[in-house]
User: Which sequence fits this backbone?
């Protein structure tokens, strides 16, 4: 609340992912690739193999141009983007971990200089000195990961820091070690994938086969480390978080599922094209494997980011930057009183600070489709009940009057025609749509907040009574305020649900 | 609920953070000045057979390295400014959001352009075009930075701009509040660029002459623009002259002139040392001006200090080890190579 809100229609999640996923895809290669280069160089020199040495040399040029320029700059880009999108959380991280970041900077300086000397030193330095610089590069790069991992893992599992505020409790948090091993595995895997891309362009078939086999081995070893440590990582995430996710958070669970599927496909491709048919490792296969790796990494990062919900720093700060520790103050004073930057339109300001981190009206994660055809009172009730909804959203911490201002703000931008007219539906189909819109955010048939069994023995009149007294049935449950046609259609649909149908 | 840790604190005494901030920012400026000033001098300087001139070729090869140094060293002052002034800096950056974010992509493009120049064959006509484009990108970055940091010192203006537009499409409309500051910075870069051209071109008369011309000319106009900037501050002039800033200013001017004196005598160690301390003084003045400008709105000294010495110490050890490793690697690279 101490910062202005950057209003970008494309959505914070997408903007963050665009920069962060691309960065981690390069930055992890920067670590694993460093190891790949020096280990392969060492082996080539030991066997006095000029072709392998030539390959490593060519790869080192690509490596420097990719990691030192693009990797390093997109890393700065992450700093920029988190400061723009989530300055409050960044402020917390900076104040608590500034010396960790400063330490990482020391490793970064060594890393960058070592990369430049390694690349420029092929002809100038002796083999021993060259490999020494290569090893220094890898060690510095991995140490920078070991530092950053503490801060990234902290956001998911702050552990004892929440009680003590101790740096070390926050840094060596419950997911630190598993995350570090997992990311190390990713580094090794990506070293293999990038090297495969380079190997795919090799003309000499037999040399290409040995290059591809060697690099696929790196990819598979990395993937094996990733798979094993993923179980460890998942076990380190508090059970309550995983349980809640399984029940009410479709996005991280979908990302997790996608991640396992992609890992299987990636493994199969590495075995097939890397080990069985290495000569057939066409550049297009290389591109496909790289894209798979990128999407796999994206799904992992999406899982890690979204499993934290409703928090940006678990147990400390919600995703919309409201602070857990200030909840009582917000509720007493109202959110507006805590906003340092105002525009003169209170509804707009409240909407931005309470909802816009994750939702737009008509763009990314849009609210309009969810509220088209809804009346203002329902929207008001929905705002008050966000903490109960599917997706594990942050609770609304403002006053009742402020929820009303947000409701007004949303209501004036949605379609005011009845649901039946907007969607061209009637009868049970209309009932289903009304259920999705008015009930489905908290009650998923057969899933999160499901109570379909209770409808089994209810007559239409009982169901009607239930709708009439909806506001009294649960904490923060809004009253049913739809039209009589919607009410009738909903009763019809609830009967079908009660009989076990239409889920 | 209210037992959660408080996060708005400084994890070391303010003086220590300030020293580290000023020092690392000065080092960042040295690298940036080498880069920006070097490109300007190379593009505008009258070298004989310019694009085949050994000094020019050496600079073209060094520009990507200078870019790496500028970015890498620049991370530290960015870290410290975010630590002490997060609410001022992020807020200003958000108001200029898209312009600020674009910096990342512009720098990436400029970096690749510089690499393109360094890979090009000697005498290639592509080199000046690539350098020119890279320079245009770097000037964009400098303008946006000047906008953001001048806005960060003006919370009232920042709030007014945000009330007008929330999409991150604003720049500081009070041009006078950043243009002289920016100009002074860029002319300073030309001065330092001239110094480095003179230093690396000391064995080539024409290159030294080019360096000297830009060193003297750059310093003259940088001083002039500095005074214009000083007078444009209006009401801040008096408190600045009554603060340590006056001594820093006087010392910086004297040192800059001393640097010029030794440069003419080709005593580059003394000249470079004085130039560095002069630059350090300018950064210190910049810091004092920020404090004066924010007076009444925010005082860093009001932020609670909870030192994390148990974390600072490992950082210090890592820093010293890193310096040692950097020295060791340079020795491996430049030293005598033992046969394998």
Assistant:
């Amino acid at each position: 609340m101490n910062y202005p809100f950057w209003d970008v229609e494309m959505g914070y999640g997408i903007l963050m992912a665009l920069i962060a996923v691309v960065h981690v895809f390069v930055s992890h290669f920067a670590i694993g690739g460093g190891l790949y280069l020096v280990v392969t160089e060492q082996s080539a020199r030991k066997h006095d193999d000029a072709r392998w040495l030539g390959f490593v040399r060519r790869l080192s040029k690509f490596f420097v141009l990719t990691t030192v320029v693009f990797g390093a700059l997109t890393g700065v880009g992450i700093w920029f983007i988190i400061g723009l999108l989530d300055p409050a959380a960044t402020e917390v991280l900076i104040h608590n971990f500034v010396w960790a970041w400063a330490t990482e900077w020391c490793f970064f300086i060594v890393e960058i200089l070592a990369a430049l000397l390694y690349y420029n030193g092929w002809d100038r330095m002796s083999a021993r000195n060259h490999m020494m610089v290569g090893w220094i590069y890898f060690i510095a790069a991995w140490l920078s990961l070991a530092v950053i991992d503490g801060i990234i893992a902290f956001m998911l599992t702050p552990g004892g820091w929440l009680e003590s505020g101790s740096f070390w409790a926050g840094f060596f948090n419950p997911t630190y070690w598993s995350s570090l091993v997992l990311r190390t595995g990713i580094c090794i895997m990506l070293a293999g994938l990038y090297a495969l891309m380079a190997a795919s362009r090799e003309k000499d078939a037999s040399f290409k086969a040995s290059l591809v086999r060697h690099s696929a081995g790196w990819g598979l070893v990395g993937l094996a480390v990733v798979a094993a440590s993923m179980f460890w990582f998942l076990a380190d995430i508090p059970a309550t978080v995983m349980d809640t996710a399984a029940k009410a958070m479709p996005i991280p669970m979908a990302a997790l599922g996608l991640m396992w599927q992609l890992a299987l496909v990636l493994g199969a491709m590495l075995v097939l094209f890397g080990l069985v048919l290495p000569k057939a490792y066409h550049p297009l296969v290389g591109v496909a494997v790289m894209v798979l790796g990128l999407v796999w990494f994206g799904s992992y990062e999406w899982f890690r980011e979204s499993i934290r919900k409703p928090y940006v720093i678990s147990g400390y700060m919600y995703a919309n930057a409201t602070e857990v520790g200030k909840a009582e103050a917000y509720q007493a004073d109202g959110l507006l009183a805590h906003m340092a930057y105002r525009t003169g339109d209170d509804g707009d300001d409240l909407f931005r600070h309470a909802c816009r981190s994750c939702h737009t009206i008509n763009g990314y994660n849009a609210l309009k489709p969810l509220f088209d055809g809804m009346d203002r009172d329902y929207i008001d009730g929905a705002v008050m009940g966000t903490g109960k909804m599917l997706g594990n959203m942050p609770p609304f911490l403002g006053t009742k009057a402020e929820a009303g201002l947000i409701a007004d703000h949303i209501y004036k931008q949605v379609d005011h025609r009845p649901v039946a007219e907007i969607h061209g539906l009637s009868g049970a189909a209309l009932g289903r749509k009304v259920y999705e819109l008015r009930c489905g955010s908290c009650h998923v048939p057969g899933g999160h907040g499901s109570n379909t069994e209770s409808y089994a023995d209810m007559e239409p009149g009982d169901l009607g009574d239930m709708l009439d007294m909806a506001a009294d049935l649960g904490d923060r449950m809004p009253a049913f305020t739809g039209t009589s046609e919607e009410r009738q259609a909903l009763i019809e649909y609830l009967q079908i649900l009660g009989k076990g149908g239409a889920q | 609920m209210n037992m959660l840790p408080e996060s708005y604190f400084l994890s070391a005494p303010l003086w220590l953070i300030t020293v580290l901030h000023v020092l690392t920012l000065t080092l960042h400026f040295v690298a940036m000045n080498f880069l920006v000033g070097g490109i300007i001098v190379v593009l505008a300087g009258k070298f004989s057979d310019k694009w085949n001139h050994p000094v020019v070729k050496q600079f073209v090869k060094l520009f990507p390295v200078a870019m790496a140094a500028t970015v890498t060293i620049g991370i530290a002052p960015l870290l410290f400014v975010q630590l002490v002034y997060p609410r001022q800096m992020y807020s200003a950056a958000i108001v200029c959001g898209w312009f600020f974010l674009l910096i990342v992509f512009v720098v990436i493009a400029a970096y690749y352009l510089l690499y393109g120049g360094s890979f090009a064959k000697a005498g290639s006509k592509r080199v000046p075009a690539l350098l020119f484009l890279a320079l245009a990108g770097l000037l964009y970055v400098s303008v946006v930075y000047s906008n953001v940091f001048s806005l960060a010192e003006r919370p009232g203006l920042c709030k007014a701009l945000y009330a007008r537009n929330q999409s991150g499409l604003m720049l500081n409309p009070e041009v006078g509040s950043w243009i002289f500051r920016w100009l002074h910075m860029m002319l300073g870069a030309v001065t330092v660029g001239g110094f480095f051209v003179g230093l690396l071109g000391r064995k080539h008369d024409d290159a030294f002459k080019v360096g000297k011309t830009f060193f003297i000319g750059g310093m003259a106009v940088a001083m002039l623009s500095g005074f214009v900037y000083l007078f444009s501050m209006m009401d801040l002039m008096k408190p600045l002259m009554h603060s340590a800033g006056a001594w820093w200013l006087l010392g910086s001017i004297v040192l800059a002139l001393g640097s010029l004196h030794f440069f003419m005598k080709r005593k580059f160690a003394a000249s470079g040392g004085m130039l560095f301390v002069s630059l350090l003084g300018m950064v210190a003045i910049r810091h004092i001006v920020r404090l004066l400008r924010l007076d009444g709105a925010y005082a860093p000294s009001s932020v609670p200090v909870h030192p994390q010495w148990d974390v600072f110490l490992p950082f210090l050890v890592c820093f010293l080890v890193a310096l040692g490793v950097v020295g060791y690697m340079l020795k491996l690279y430049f030293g005598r190579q033992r046969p394998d």
The two ends of chain B are 65 Å apart (CA to CA).
